[in-house]
Amino acid sequence: MKIKGMVAALAITAMSISTLAACGSGDNQSQEKPETLSVWTYESPTSAQYHAWKKAAEEFTKETGIKTKFETKSFTQIAQNSSQFLDSDQAPDVMESNRGNGSAGMLSSMGLLSDLGPYVKKYGWDKKVTQADSSMARYDDKGIMDGNTWYGLPSYAEFQRVYYNKDMFAKYGVEIPTTMDEFEQACQKFKDAGVTPIDADAGEYGVLWLWWQLVSTKADKQFMADWQMYKHDVNWKSEPLTYATNTINEWLEKGYISRNATGLKAEDTNSSFIKGDYPMYQTGTWNQSRFISQVKTFDWEAHILPGSKLAQGCTGNLMVIPEKSKHKDYAAQLLDKIISDGIQKGIAEEGGIPVSSKVKTSSNEKNQAMIEEYASFSKKDALSYYPDYPAANLTDAIPAALQELVNGTKNPDQVLSSIKDAYTSGVKDMDVKN
Fold this sequence. Notes:
Radius of gyration: 22 Å
Structural class: alpha+beta
CATH architecture of the largest domain: 3-Layer(aba) Sandwich
Number of domains: 2
CATH superfamily of the largest domain: Periplasmic binding protein-like II
Shape: globular
Number of strands: 13
């Protein structure tokens, strides 16, 4: 989009002057020690990473005397409005940002995020976060991930897993599946017993994540390079896309997923699984700490969807320092505390996946299994990320198209056509393809 290109050019010109003073004496940084740093997040207060961030903030305050004020925003608030408030005097000192070209990448190309390169060098963050895991933190001048400039710092990793209610499986005499055929057979057995097998929402992102994980059972790295990195045009007739869309439709027709999913949101499905209403629930590992603490009436286990070649996930949301932050050096000091070994170990113990290469274990058996499963994919660079990363409009457009499938108002071909149109126009507006 040419307008975006002009804004980015102006912003980068301004940054070329301001970044000369970064890391100690910068542009709009206050020369006085602040009383408080403002931190905006949209993370659930029950998540392992949120607990870790709060612990890091306590240690930061103890060391510096500077308080931290956490403000919880919604994902939608930040995803849809971040370019507006980051370009204002109300910008926070630290903000949680979604990853990907359409989120942190777009903001970086518009000059709204600080170049963290000086802090990476000062604190050695590139020694703690591997090259593969830092790909979502680094962007080029067009805002495409895996670039050379750090604009954010990841503090945890995440991926999608299927959580199984083991008690329900035992009650109905069903085995935990290890192949896709077994998964569908399990769904049919539950359906025959009058139980809807898959807990899913279409009011937010649940069906989208399930769809992309099905894509990830058929896709290879070239498909992902084309989708995420614009290496070639996406083949909209390819098996990964047609298989995933047709399979979701079949599961809806067979009753494996309820049509009522159209009116459900993530909290509805989280609560339903915790109460023991469903035998299977695919969700992000950010919910694992919640399940550990809140599931009281049944035992559970979790694995990636059977047959997956790639894991849907990556390092978690980024902690970024807005360009208009007046306290960048102190903000970076807080970020360094978040990536410290002690805080990273806390993430592992509470049910999260630490991003520091120095922390690889948890004393909790379920958490250790999760950490190892993620590592088995990430070390092979076998991650499919999330489907909305290529363009800013896809976070809304893909769920909207899939909701039509759940509603029964569009067939699989029409849904894929809608996603194709949104992808094509979104990538064009991003102005990232040569």
